[in-house]
Amino acid sequence: MREHRADGSRFLLPASVLAEVLVGVARLGEEELDQRRNQIVAAFGLSVVLDESVAVSAARLRATHRSLRLPDAIVLATAEVLDAQAVLR
């Protein structure tokens, strides 16, 4: 991640990933949730909305790769639709 930051790369954060990352902290309360969300947005930028083109691309990926789980298909589809250079995990 540091290499990508150093070369000026822009990060895309699918909204589905934001939701997954915030589940645990959401159990701690609204203040903690807001604080963590702000940290994530500061690090990666605003989240990318799951729209119809991403949904259709994710469906194609899952149809082709049956073992691919939907959350992962959404990440890959977001990268595909937005022409990302790399996917970080």
Characterise the protein shown here.
The chain is mostly helical and 89 residues long. The chain has 2 domains: 1-48, no CATH class; 50-83, no CATH class. It has helices at residues 2-6, 15-26, 30-44, 52-64, 70-81, and strands at 13-14, 47-48. It has a two-stranded parallel sheet with strand order 1-2. The longest helix has 15 residues, at 30-44. It is globular, with a radius of gyration of 14 Å. It starts with a helix and ends in an 8-residue tail after the last helix. 12% of the residues are buried. The model has no long low-confidence stretch (mean pLDDT 93).
Indicate the multimeric state.
single chain
Radius of gyration: 14 Å
Largest sheet: 2 strands, parallel
Strand order of the largest sheet: 1-2
Helix-strand topology string:
HEHHEHH
Structural class: mainly alpha
Classify the helix fraction into a percent range: 55-70%
Number of domains: 2
Using DSSP, what is the number of strands? Answer: 2
How big a fraction of the residues is strand? Answer: under 5%
- What is the 3D form? globular
> What's the mean pLDDT score?
93
Instruction: Report the total helices.
Output: 5
Calculate the terminal CA-CA distance, rounded to whole Å: 9 Å
Low-confidence stretches: none
